[in-house]
Amino acid sequence: MAGPAPRLSIYDALAANRIRTAVLIAVFTLIVLALGFVFGEYLQPGGGAALMPFAIGFSALSSAGSYFAGDKVVLGMSHARELGVGEEPQLRNIVEALAIGSGLPTPKLYLIDDTAPNAFATGRDPRHASIAVTRGLLAKLERTELEAVLAHEMSHIGNRDIRVMLLVIVLVGTVALLADWLMRSMWWGGRRGRDRDRGGAVALFAFALALVTPVIATLIQLAVSRQREYLADASAALLTRYPPALASALRKIAADREPLEVANKATASLYIANPLKDRPAFFDGLFDTHPPVEERIRRLEAMG
Amino acid sequence: MEIALVVAGILVVLAFFLISMYNRLVTLRQRVREAWADIDVQLKRRWDLIPNLVETVKGYAAHERQTFEAVTQARAQAIAAATSGSPEQRASAENALGGALLNLRAVAEAYPQLQAVQEFKDLSENLSATEDKIAFARRFYNGGVRDYNTALMTFPTNVLGGMFGFTPEQYFELTDVAERAVPQVKFT
After folding, report:
1. Is the pLDDT of residue A130 over 60?
2. What average pLDDT does the structure give for chain A?
């Protein structure tokens, strides 16, 4: 196949993803520790240290939780239903064939009952991986296009992208939730408590929050590197030996104006193409989860 | 004394190096064998589908005897090649079977009533899926053979491979049946 070789090989991707996983968990732990310390100091001067064991336990528990059960959470959030053995035989046949072609176990298959065409893969490793597709994807794509989309998802599984993306979603979600909860409890707690301390504590908290927010944004960017989508596209083209199918599938998915109702800002980065059709402008720069479809199509066409 | 330690250190490093090289060859060869098993499973599944398919088509196109016989014969030869033959012989027998099946499908195309039969539709989808899987399994196998043979041919693994009797594996070459075979459709 003539064409530009992917700039990132699968071996680089595996190594990079291992480092990303470690960095993610470390940064998450640091954020939780920082939040815990601030909250402890707020409750009682010098009380920050007392909260540390709790904060460490909490971050360990939620890291382990998102590692082992994150896929269930994400699939549940997306209202995906696991397909039985006899259901959608064509989909199952294609996935089984792709699994053979990439030397991976066949992932579990899930269906999202929505007419917007889209798909994502999740799980902690290839042995515990799932692919979810919408009913719209099955209805609107030709067999070769469906195969190309599924090959893209199999590539995410093979490159171990699924683990990083899963950790990002659940851990970033947890931090956001925690920050929100702490802010509320401090606000209301402050109202009830001595007014003199409130100003200082809130200022301290605002400082912490200001510290945390850019880190969260960085984390998301870490997770949604454009390079990864390009690599998965290239691997999919290599697997199916037919790049035009993925190009036309992407075109169809992008042209479909219907937003996917079950997707939200947290899970959007999982999907093969951005499922949120009416995103606000700021979302574009900071949380740009996918490279522009036109650019992906251009690269795929250059391969053919 | 110090020299002895240095020499011992070098030997230990060398031993680790050799062991890891040997293990890599074994892993690569194992991957080839597993991939071969994958192809085997799919080829057998194709054989299993054929009798039913032939019977179904026969019900609507009884006079296309030559086509049925060609398929049945090719199937028997493919099964025979599997028990005795090298990957090369096997590939050519399976290749012939693929060609015969293509003819059978071309014949079936000419019978619209047959296309409407659910059993035929199911068998057809099953056969397509199986041939898809054969194609993917073959690519994965050939990729594994390529990696293993490359390791066996490049320095320094080639020395070690020669010492421990590693031999290159054969590619499984199925030429793209759809491109090669010209379907012979007879409207008699």
Report:
1. yes
2. 79
pLDDT tops 90 at residue A41 = no
Rounded to 10 degrees, the C-alpha dihedral B149/B154/B160/B166 comes to 10
Torsion B3-B4-B9-B13 (CA) sign? positive
pLDDT on residue A55: 83
Mutate to test the interface with A, among B36, B130, B133 (most CBs of A within 10 A): B133
Which stretches in chain B have pLDDT values below 50? Answer: 177-188
- Name the residue of chain A whose CA is nearest to B32's CA: A103
Phi–psi pair at A115, nearest 5 degrees: -85, -10
Lowest mean pLDDT among A90-94, A229-233, B176-180: B176-180
Domain around A129: 1-304
Range of the domain at B67: 2-180
B187 within domain boundaries: no
Q: Give A238's contacts in chain B (Cβ within 8 Å).
A: none
Q: Which residues are paired to A122 by β-bridges? A: A130
Highest mean pLDDT among A142-156, A173-187, B85-99: A142-156
Q: Is the pLDDT of residue A137 over 90?
A: yes
Whether residue B142 lies inside any domain: the answer is yes
**What is the number of structural domains in chain B?**
1
Indicate the number of domains in chain A: 1
The ipTM assigned to this model is 0.73
pTM, full prediction: 0.77
Task: Give me the pLDDT at residue A105, please.
Answer: 93
Q: What is the pLDDT confidence band of residue A145, given thresholds at 50, 70 and 90? A: very high
* B186 found inside a domain: no
Residue B78 lies inside a defined structural domain of this protein = yes
Secondary structure of chain A as H, E, C letters: CCCCCCCCCHHHHHHHHHHHHHHHHHHHHHHHHHHHHHHHHHHCCCCHHHHHHHHHHHHHHHHHHHHHHHHHHHHHHCCEEECCCCCCHHHHHHHHHHHHHHCCCCCEEEEECCCCCCEEEEECCHHHEEEEEEHHHHHHCCHHHHHHHHHHHHHHHHCCHHHHHHHHHHHHHHHHHHHHHHHHHHHHHHHHCCHHHHHHHHHHHHHHHHHHHHHHHHHHHHHCCHHHHHHHHHHHHHHHCCHHHHHHHHHHHHHCCCCCCCCCCCCHHHECCCCCCCCCHHHHHHCCCCCCHHHHHHHHHHHC
User: What is the model's pLDDT at position B174?
Assistant: 64
- CATH label of the domain that carries residue B141: 1.20.1440.20
Q: Are B129 and A103 within 8 A, CB to CB?
A: no
Contact at CB, B139 and A98, closer than 8 angstroms? no
Preferred mutation among A11, A95, A100, A235 to probe B, highest tally of B CBs within 10 A: A100
